Give the backbone structure.
Amino acid sequence: MEPMPDFAQLQLHFIDHVQWRYELIRPVVLINNRTVQQRAEETQTHPDTIRKLTRRFRQQGIPGLFPERTEIVRPRRGKPVPDEVVEELARLKALYSGFGYRELARIIPHKCHYRIDDKTVKHLWHQSVQPVQGELPFGGYHHQTTRSQARLQVVKLYYQGWNKTSLSSFMKVSRPTIDLWIRRFEAEHFAGLEDRSRAPHTTPRKVWLPLMIEIYHLQKRHPDAGEFRIWSLLARPDISERTVGRVMALNRQVYDDIPHVPVQTEKKPPAPHPYKATRAHQFWFIDGRMMDFALNGVKWWSILILDGYSRTLLAGAMAPTEASWAALTVLYTACLRYGAPTALISDSGGAYISTEFEAVCGRLGIDHQTIVSTQGESYMNLMETHFNVQRRLYDYQFSLSQSPAELEQCHQEFIRVYNTGYPRKTGQLEDSHRGLRNFRALFSLEPPTAMAV
């Protein structure tokens, strides 16, 4: 038999006190080549210690070498605790050390199907060895892949006996949140554990019947006041001005005794425009506008021609008066660039119903149609709306002109900006030069000598 290695050298390799005790008694109980006295001298240990460990090893085996506090406690009735229960308690102790004894007494029957008293759990809990913590079957709530599964795990642990305090500490979730999940599961089952939007289901209402009645009385006392004035009279800083306006509109629909409220009639469907163009140069519109400022004491006129299809200003000029010669000059310029239109729409002003103007339209083959503004037909002339654009866009620039030449130059600049500064339908306006007519001959009052075909 090989000589035994020095006990002092073996101690350097021990990682547990149980290993030291086992090596201490091994030559006595297994090899049987040493007496207790000899082994005590070799290890410099008291002989009673070796005798005690030897006796415990022969009675309990390896567990007898553990410290005395780790000895398995048997129930008072003498019935041994199953190893499965001891292992489950060790697992729970490695999992979380804040369990209560009664809580553990509720958990054990669910896991091991073994009823146990909380006092027995207390003894086993304190006398069990702290095991090495390995990989757990579940972790904290925030480490789960899907939140619905994490909530389901919390509910399962709760019904297995875990109390809400232990769940809150172990899962790193607040106590009210756990209460909410349990209530949702009991009311809606698994559907209550799914993610939900945090947006409120209903917005807080501030408009109630007393407020609507108060605004209604203010409307009756001040029927011509707007929403801002009613809001200031209401003196409610928690109500917005826009909310007061909506309540006022609702009151006008509900109550008929509010003064100065127009009777709402059914709106007629819009009719198609009588001069809606379907192609370029089908309808031209000509009109003049007196400017809002005076140049050397004279208010000049802006005369423009608009194409009804592309809504492009074709030609224009400034004149001290809205006369036939000024209107014919603008028409001549437009026809020289684009050819003659199919129809020309104007109002019943003297410049457009004169004999000279009608004669030129007849020679050019233009169907000249006039409208009567005093009979509500102004909407038919599209130039009415475009003059408002001119007023807002360029009237200030016109007012800075010091001479007729500067005024005409500014007028031409307005036409350019208007035509290029707004999006247009591509391909609607082109220089058609239809017929290549001799417009100089056509505009003369005498019959033309020759006509180009």
Summary: The chain is about 45% helix and 5% strand. Residues 83-127 form one domain. The chain has five domains: 7-70, 83-127, 141-193, 209-254, 283-422+434-443.
